[in-house]
Amino acid sequence: MNPTQALLALLLFPGLLYALPMGWLMLGLERRLRARFQGRLGPPLSQPFYDVVKLLAKSPVPRAPADLRLLTGLPILAFGSGAGALALLPVLAAKTGFAGDLVLWVSLLEMPPLCLVLAGYASRSIYGEVGATREAIVSIASSVPLLAALLAMAAAAGSLRLTTIAAATPWPVRVPALLAYFICLPVKLRLNPFSIANAEQEILAGPLTEFDGRRLALWELAHGLEWVAWLGALVCLAVPLRSSSSWLNVMAFSLLSLLLVLLLTALESATARLKLPQATGWLWRWASLPAALALAAAVYWRYSRY
Amino acid sequence: MFELGKGLFLRLIERARRRSAWLYHFNAGACNGCDIELVTCLTPRYDVEQVGILLEASPRHADVLCVSGPVTRGTRAALETIYAQIPDPKVVVAIGSCPATCNVFAGSPVIEGPLERIVPVDIYVPGCPPRPHMIIAGIARAIDRLATAGTAGGRP
């Protein structure tokens, strides 16, 4: 991956030019499908776009300047790291990636939740602090099985490069690892039954309670990018797209991502919010189990070959 | 060309404001009658999310402040704080007879209302309590005001 390719990946595909409309489409689809599942009509698919435009056009309420730097910097950081994580997705396998990009990718993906935690504390609101604490706890509970699953895949594929992992992981490792990944997805996207950190109405808006106008719009954009990145990564790791036609790869990648939105929304609509101890207990038990299986399979795979 | 671009930009903002009004509901000592009717608007029967209306939990996210109840002494300071926290442009909808006239509570020593003494009110929705249709009609007119409230870069 040379600098030009990296820049193209960041700005065009699977970066911002693709991911912003796709993120809006995913959020809109999620809202519309959720409404349909609840017996309502729901907003049009373009709704998240109009939300962001409206938020960008609001004038901010004056505040203490010390707060302002943090409150503006954190959503920008979350947005930037989301875009960076997207750029590393191995959709067009031949053109992306470098040795060790798994490490960078994971750290970039874990940045938005970290920013959210810091933002909750920085906003100095009691609701923000409660939301930040909750986000930190569920984030750790889901990151351990998630990282174990990714490590298992990397170990079995014998590489820290995403393209190689997507192509070379043996299926006995891949299936339990991706199961653990899928269980952690609603936690990472803060959906029911794990919508504990943002807990709408219960703790107002959680970490984002004190964000207004443009800063809130940045969070919405970062959240859209998170959707595209987390779902896209699952698609890339589950279905190594190896067709010779790039267009076909891109189409399959987008359609499979949208299919995942449908699955997650169905899960979200069918469940109620768990309590924090229930959620962490559930994650430690049921997400760690497939992750541990994947690790065991990976160890077996490595040693049975030599 | 520049003027045309600017015009398009302002039209986009106006359209976005029309299609994405977020409400903040403040109970200024209401009997809960109007509050129940307001929440009814979000149910599958009325489903205001069709036009992008959401009930937000934080005043900093809101565009429309819906107030029910005659403003009592205990809620006045909170109401003023919340009004100040809503970023411009914003509109205020008085839901029910209480914020308009104090209703049966008029003359009570613990009432600081009606609402217009404390914050500027844009739309009144009369009724005790008003029906959800009326609340939706009132909010729709408030959104008209919101959308056309001076679109010069978001400063009314």
Describe the protein's architecture and organization:
The complex is a heterodimer of chains A (306) and B (156). Chain A is mainly α. Chain A has one domain (3-305). Chain A has 12 helices and no strands. In chain A, helix 2 (16-37) runs parallel beside helix 11 and helix 4 (65-87) packs parallel to helix 10 (213-238). The longest helix of chain A has 32 residues, at 126-157. Chain A is globular, with a radius of gyration of 19 Å. Chain B is an alpha/beta fold and 156 residues long. Chain B has a single domain, classed as 3-Layer(aba) Sandwich (Rossmann fold). Helices cover 38% and strands 13% of the residues of chain B. Chain B is built from 5 helices and 5 strands; from the N terminus they run H-E-H-E-E-H-E-H-E-H. Chain B has helices spanning 2-19, 33-40, 73-85, 97-101, 132-147, and strands spanning 22-27, 54-55, 64-68, 91-95, 123-125. Chain B has a 5-stranded parallel sheet with strand order 2-1-3-4-5, sandwiched between helices. In chain B, helix 1 (2-19) runs antiparallel to helix 5 (132-147). Chain B starts with a helix and ends in a 9-residue tail after the last helix. Residues 152-156 of chain B have low confidence and may be disordered. Chain A binds chain B through residues 31, 35, 38-43, 47, 50-51, 53-54, 56-61, 127, 200-201, 204-205, 208-213, 216, and chain B through 12-13, 15-17, 19-20, 44, 47, 49-52, 56-58, 60-61, 63, 84-89, 151, 153-155.
